[in-house]
Amino acid sequence: MTDTELKQPPDGKRALVSEILILPDGRVLGHSLTRAFTQLLSELNPDDPQIRPRTPEAVASDTTAQEPAA
Amino acid sequence: MIRSGRWERRSAVAAGRIAAARAALADCRFCAHDCGVNRLAGEVGVCRAGAGPRVHLAQVEVADELELIPTFAIALSGCDLRCDFCITGAQSWNPLAGEIIPAAELATRAEAALAGGARTVMLLGGEPTIHLPFLLEVVAALPDEAKLVLKTNAHGSVVSRAFLHGLFDVWCADYKFGNDACAERLARVPNYTETVRENLLWAARQSDLIVRHLVMPGHVACCWAPVAEWLALHLPGVKVNLRSGFWPAWQARRHPELRGTVPDGEAARAREIAAEWDLNLVV
Description:
The structure holds 2 protein chains of 2 kinds.
Chain A: E1 19-22, E2 28-31, H1 35-44, H2 56-66
Antiparallel strand pairs in A: 1-2
Chain B: H1 10-24, E1 55-61, E2 71-76, H2 89-92, H3 103-115, E3 120-124, H4 132-141, E4 148-152, H5 158-164, E5 170-174, H6 180-187, H7 192-206, E6 208-214, H8 220-234, E7 239-243, H9 264-276, E8 280-281
Parallel strand pairs in B: 2-3, 3-4, 4-5, 5-6, 6-7, 7-8
Antiparallel strand pairs in B: 1-2
Helix pairs in contact in B: 1-4, 3-4, 8-9
C-alpha cells in the first residue's frame, strides 16, 4: 500500500482496505482481509482452506455456535 | 460478541492509568529500546512517534485467528522495530501516516461493529504499545464486556507491561526471530530474544496468549526451529499460529533470501518442526 491516508470516498463513507498478492502459480496471499473481500476470494476459489472458514457465512455460523445459551 | 466477564471494571482501571501514562511520555520507556526521550517536548526515539498516534486502519477484518474474527481492527501508525519485510512498512515506519481519530470515535465505531457481529476489538500497529496513553483511552471508552485483543511485537518494556496489566483478554504476540543476529540484521533490534521471551512469559501468566510466527524464506532452521523449541519447552500448550504467507513487502529486497515467498519445501519443514515439538497450532 502506498497511500498513507485512510481513504474517504465522496459520499462520506470510509472505504475498506484489503491487500492481496497474486503469485505466478495462482496462489493468493491476503492481508487486512475484510468480509466483502473474503467473499470475493471465496467465489474465485471456493476450495481455499484459508479463505473458506473466513467467509461471512462460515464466520456467522461459527459465531452463533459460540454464543452462550440464553 | 463473547462476554468474558473477567474485567468488570476494566474501563475504569484503564481510565485511571491514562494520566500517568501521558506523564511517562516525558521520559519514554514504553519499549525495550528504553530511549528515555521526552515525546511531550517533541523529542523522538527509535519509533519516531510523537505524543499522539494516527490511525491507518479501523475496520472489521477476518484475516486473523478464527477464534478472534470478525474483529474490529484499530491499526495505529508507528513501530519501534524496523523489520525490512514489514507488510505495513509505509505506516509502521511512519508514525505520521493515517489520520487522527479520537479514542471516543474509535470506541463508537467499535461498538457498532460489535453490535453488527464482530467478536473482538483488536488494537494493533505498527506497534500499539508505543502509544500507551491512547491505547488506555480507547480501552477506557470501550464497554467492559468487549473482548479485547492486543496484537503486539512483544518488544514492550516492564513499564508498558505495568500499564497494560489486566486490560486485554488476548495477547496476540509475534515471535519473529529465533536468534539475535537475524533480529539485528532484519529488524535492527538488539537483545531481541531475551526481551520477547520475557514478554511472552508475562503475557501467558495474565491473559490468553496466541504466539504468531511468520515463516520467512531461508529462516526455518535459524528462526523457526529455535522458536518452536523454546515455545514447546517454556510455554507448553500455548496457541501457536504458524504463518507461511510471507511476501516480499516493503524493503525485503535488501536481503537476498527475502526476495520471494516461502518455498513449499520450507513451509512443509516448518510444519514438521511444529509437529515434532507437538505445538498447539491454531489458524
